[in-house]
Amino acid sequence: MLSVAAPPRAIVTRPAREAAQWVADLQAHGIAAAALPLIAIGAVADPALREALQRARARLGSYRAVMFVSGNAVQYFFEENQAPGLAQQALAAINTRVWAPGPGTVAALRQAGLPASRIDAPGADAAQFDSEALWQVVAPQIGPGDRVLVVRGSSAPAAEGGNGREWLAGRIGAAGGAVDFVAAYERRAPRLDAAGQALARAAAGDGSLWLLSSSEAVAHLAAALPGQDWSRARALATHPRIAQAARAAGFGTVLECRPSLAEVVASIESPHEQ
């Protein structure tokens, strides 16, 4: 007779706002979940970066396409008090397409007022939601002289799949185009309080499943708990590069799945049917 054990507790490591939603969604599926944000998000503070962002907003229509690396990139590029005007500007630029690497970014763009007809993204059945999958969709758009704006965070490029962004820039360059990068927000290491550290140490060996959606989160976790033994820790990574980072950090078990809620839930539940 088939018996179903309770799935493990999920540790959600996304930035605080996203983590809260993920915890609620997982709990709605009967999965115990706790938020432990390992990336802090905020507006860019550096005056030079803020000036560059304003310039990018002003010339949005001069680009063949604008790529947003994440929902956070959309949120901070289209500030609440500017979103309607910028959305209309984008619509007026008839040759400008809007690129998104995955469904979360698409949803953020739609919320900002951009119609689905202007957005290009990997299909729902794509093996991965990343720059490589996106390029398969948008490659025919780029030719000699075309410029693409990539909107991302100001942290190290590798933090948000930066290797993929650089790969994409290479493909655009090979097609005769050029890429500009602009930082719309900052990604920082959070300061874990005593409760956060206690949760992390417990989850390193109590069977919890760490949900990892960024290689940067893995690095922040290792830095926050130097010397911690992760050999009994279990992780679910939403991209092969993130899985590689988790294994390099010492996680004993690392599973992989696509980043949609449905597939994360299925991955959490499936190993526990006995």
Describe the structure.
By secondary structure, this protein is an alpha/beta fold. It folds into 2 domains: 113 residues, Rossmann fold (3-Layer(aba) Sandwich), CATH 3.40.50; 147 residues, Rossmann fold (3-Layer(aba) Sandwich), CATH 3.40.50. It contains 11 helices and 11 strands. The strands form 2 sheets. The chain has a 6-stranded mixed sheet with strand order 3-8-7-4-5-6. Helix 3 packs parallel to helix 5 and helix 9 runs parallel beside helix 10. The longest helix has 13 residues. The radius of gyration is 19 Å and the shape is globular. About 3% of the residues have low confidence.
Number of helical segments with 4 or more residues: 11
Strand percentage lies at: 15-25%
The H/E string reads EHEEHEHHEHEHEHEHEHEHEH
Question: How many domains comprise the coordinates?
Answer: 2
Summary tags:
single chain, 274 residues, alpha/beta, Rossmann fold, 2 domains, five-stranded parallel beta sheet, globular
What is this entry, summarized?
The longest helix is centred in the N-terminal third of the chain and has 13 residues, at 16-28.
SSE topology:
Layout: E1 10-12, H1 16-28, E2 33-35, E3 40-43, H2 47-58, E4 65-68, H3 71-77, H4 83-92, E5 97-99, H5 103-111, E6 119-120, H6 131-138, E7 147-153, H7 162-174, E8 178-188, H8 194-203, E9 209-212, H9 215-224, E10 234-237, H10 240-249, E11 253-256, H11 261-269
Parallel strand pairs: 1-2, 1-9, 4-5, 4-7, 5-6, 7-8, 9-10, 10-11
Antiparallel strand pairs: 3-8
